[in-house]
Amino acid sequence: MMRYKLIFLIARTHLMSRIKQSLIAALGVTFGIGVYIGMIGFMTGLNKLMDDLMLNNTPHIRLYNDLKVERSAIGARVADFEKSVLVVHHQRPKDAKRNIRNSLEIISELRKDPRVLGVAPRLSTQVFYDFGSVQLNGSILGIEVYEENKLFNLSDNLLEGELSSLATENNGAVIGVGLAKKLSVGVGDRINLTSSTGVQFQLKVVGIFQIGISAIDDVQGYSTLKTAQKLLGKNKDYISDINIKLHDITKAKELAAEYARRFEVTAVDYKTANAQMELGMNVRNIMTYVVGVALLIVAGFGIYNILNMFIFEKMDDIAILKATGFSTSDIHRIFISEALITGLVGGVLGLLVGFLISYGIDNIPFEQDFMPTLKTFPVNYDPKYYIIGIVFALATTFLAGYLPARKAGKIDPVEIIRGK
Question: What is the C-alpha separation between 120 and 145, in angstroms, rounded?
Fold first, then answer.
């Protein structure tokens, strides 16, 4: 124990004797760790915001009835074309239906599945909003209000009105902010629309929402499932989509395949439906880690250079230490201790600087009309990045000190003393 204490005191004396170089080496680590923490907090915060935006509005699994074309042509069934070539152009779906068969039974089965967090049935339909003599293209999404809000947080996007009014108001609707501006209507006004089957209908506006995606805000409205079915003249089991949220999102792909086989419907998991967005986020994460690691490696090179200078300046001291009984392993420990002390001091300061950078970014105003819930830049304070930062700082400085320590251990005291 005494020997290790002596090694530590020698390492500290070396560092304090060249305090300026020691501070520069520690500040190199501080800069690397601080920028790493600040940048990764901002980038992962941004990715988390994008993830939340996508997942809040996207089911983990979507069940629907996809249009399928009958591949076996009728000509092949009524005649023998074994020695001929039958070519059929432009096949079309036969007896295709938009609704899911046995939808109520499927919903009941899914709600009993312990792996499922919630199920939200929908009925989407294209409509024309009547605005004077002009008709605007749009859509109405029939939903189960409370279940939809539980799974997709619709109330967070409401600018005006109450979501509960949609459930209680007969023929009520919550419409996008862009659509409300186009129609010059507000909460309490009535809008006229024409369904795709030519039925005229009137809805009362009970709320206005803003998701931040103009393709939705400018054209879409929500009504109850019952109102949408009435608009299309369909029964209560007429449902076009069943959206599912899971307890474990990582099983989405596996369960989508299982439900497709079990219920004989098309099932798409959220990653397949948002493949491009997933790819973009993965690329951003990789770039963040690459830049962060590069900063830490640059800091490590700075420590390596400064320790090399130490060894050159302390060759006499090393020769005396060896001549007085210090082994090569002891010399290794002295210089590695110097590197680790530098890394620890610089790393802890770097964590503090990184936190201050993150806090500063977190307080910069960033208000956008298309995203009313966002007030400042998003920042992620996940402790794991701080743990990664300090561990990487110590690992980098250990490696930066290892090579100079080996060089110091090879110094022959006889040659140094003869050289004097």
Answer: 9
DSSP-assigned states of every residue in 31-48 = HHHHHHHHHHHHHHHHHH
Contact by Cβ (8 Å): 356, 35: no
8-state DSSP, 155? G
Query: Which amino acid appears at position 342 of this protein?
Result: T
Provide mean pLDDT across the span 228-246: 89
Residue 268 in tokens: 């798409």
> Which candidate, 170, 167, 155, places its Cα nearest to that of 203?
170
- Cross-strand partners of 223: 142
Half-sphere exposure of 17 (CA within 13 A, CB side): 14
Query: What three-state secondary structure class fits 89?
Result: coil
Note if the pTM is more than 0.85: no
Using alpha carbons only, give the angle 405, 385, 375 rounded to the nearest 5 degrees. Answer: 145
Beta strands 172-176 and 158-161, pairing class: unpaired
Cβ atoms of 137 and 195 within 8 Å: the answer is no
With a cut of 90, say whether residue 131 has pLDDT above it.
no
Percent of the chain with pLDDT over 90: 17
Residue 342 pLDDT grade (very low, low, confident, very high; cuts 50, 70, 90)? confident
DSSP string, 243-302: EEEESSGGGHHHHHHHHHHHHTSEEEEHHHHTHHHHHHHHHHHHHHHHHHHHHHHHHHHH
At 217, is the pLDDT very low, low, confident or very high (cuts 50, 70, 90)?
confident
Cα three-residue angle 275-276-279, rounded to 5 degrees: 85
pLDDT of residue 420: 53
